[in-house]
Fold:
Amino acid sequence: MPPALLRLPDFTAQTESEVLKINLDSTGKRAAGVTYVDTSGEEWEQPPDIVLLCEIR
Structure:
């Protein structure tokens, strides 16, 4: 995680979640957020300013 992001007051790292879909803007060329499922099985849509996707194998 970039240290600069951790210093932002409104930054949240959503861990242990599974992304279901990358939501695209009206042009279909830019990420406008993600739809994900958290550990309780609840589905969320998150429209952030920045989208970072990471995978750990």
In short: Residues 16-57 form one domain. The CA atoms of residues 44 and 50 lie 16 Å apart.
